[in-house]
């Protein structure tokens, strides 16, 4: 399966994340899965006329393009011309190259939240008019339009994340290569369900504190970061705490609140990332499938039943009270 990787408006962080995959040789893993990387602007030795010849071969059908991977948002400015970002040596906007190549690709994958929704590049006033391949923030459309379908029959596959997890990229491409990926494997925002049907909350090591609403009050505390520290792990769709980064880490395990980087609009929350907006003392961003009245009632009950051990540990940077050791057999 031939894969072409283009980088548009972004930081290159998704490529760096891919190279940090917990495998000895990422490219060997690709080859073993039947994936042939035709070209990557940072990893390939070809440049200049060699790359332009490859792109022409793809557009003319002399070389088959099975998967077009785009990293970074698509810069439509100024005034829709796309001339904020020209492909070197062509004097043609990157958005035109992406449109043409998407038209001959078997599948199109947006690698990272910039390519999926516009992401960080589209934050604030968005002077470059950045957008995603098939979404403009949470609105269908983007560069290719809501009705776009690659020749393989699928819309743009949004492997969202900032950066995206290397496993999400690898598993998506390997499933495509094996013919095991269909429209049913995409969630309502066209993200692969194998990770988007999970919540960051699942597997979080702070779940005991969450259950008792024993909250952290400063960055070094062990408690749940939802109530005061801006954590959106109960709302963000990803498997970060069960599919660990580099086999051992995640944002919440490192002491950082989840900022829901797999979701459209995460870059503009309307408040500081480390703050939890509240209404009448109640967090506005509640778990996605819990009515507010239920949450308030359960939170009040949980706080009244919080064990002293959990309450004391929540506002400490290390375990100050260990679980009780019983002398009798556990029953």
Description:
This protein is an alpha/beta fold. It has two domains: 2-195, Rossmann fold; 198-331, Cytochrome-c3 hydrogenase, C-terminal domain (Cytochrome-c3 Hydrogenase, Chain A, domain 2). The chain is built from ten helices and 13 strands. The chain has helices at residues 13-19, 26-32, 49-60, 94-102, 113-117, 166-177, 193-196, 207-211, 292-304, 308-314, and strands at residues 2-7, 36-39, 67-71, 74-75, 86-87, 92-93, 107-111, 130-131, 135-136, 139-140, 157-159, 278-279, 282-283. Strand 5 and strand 6 (92-93) form a beta hairpin. 42% of the residues are buried. The model has no long low-confidence stretch (mean pLDDT 93).
């Amino acid at each position: 399966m031939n894969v072409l990787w283009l980088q548009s408006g972004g930081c290159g962080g998704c490529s760096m994340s891919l190279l940090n995959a917990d495998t000895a040789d990422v490219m060997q893993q690709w080859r073993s899965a039947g994936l042939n990387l035709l070209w990557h602007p940072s990893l390939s030795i070809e440049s200049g006329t060699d790359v332009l010849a490859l792109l022409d071969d793809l557009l003319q059908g002399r070389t088959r393009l099975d998967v077009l991977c785009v990293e970074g948002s698509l810069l439509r400015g100024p005034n829709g011309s796309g001339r904020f970002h020209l492909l070197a040596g062509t004097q043609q906007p990157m958005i035109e190259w992406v449109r043409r190549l998407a038209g001959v690709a078997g599948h199109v994958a947006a690698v990272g939240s910039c390519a999926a929704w516009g992401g960080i590049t589209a934050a604030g006033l968005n002077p470059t008019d950045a957008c995603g391949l098939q979404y403009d923030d949470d609105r269908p459309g983007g560069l290719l339009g809501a009705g776009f379908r690659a020749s393989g029959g699928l819309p743009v596959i949004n492997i969202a994340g900032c950066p995206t997890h290397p496993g999400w990229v690898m598993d998506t491409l390997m499933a495509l290569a094996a013919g095991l990926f269909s429209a049913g494997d995409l969630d309502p925002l066209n993200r692969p369900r194998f990770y988007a049907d999970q919540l960051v909350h699942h597997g979080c090591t702070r779940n005991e504190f969450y259950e008792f609403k024993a909250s952290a009050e400063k960055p070094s505390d062990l408690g749940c970061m939802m109530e005061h520290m801006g954590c959106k792990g109960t709302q963000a769709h990803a498997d970060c705490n069960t599919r660990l980064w580099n086999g051992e880490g995640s944002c919440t395990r490192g002491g950082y609140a989840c900022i829901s980087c797999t979701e459209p609009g995460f870059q503009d929350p309307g408040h500081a990332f480390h703050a939890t907006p509240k209404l009448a003392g109640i967090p506005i961003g509640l778990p996605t499938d819990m009515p507010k009245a239920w949450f308030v009632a359960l939170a009040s009950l949980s706080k009244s039943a919080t064990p002293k051990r959990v309450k004391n540990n929540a506002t400490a940077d290390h375990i100050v009270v260990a679980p009780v050791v019983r002398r009798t057999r556990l029953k």
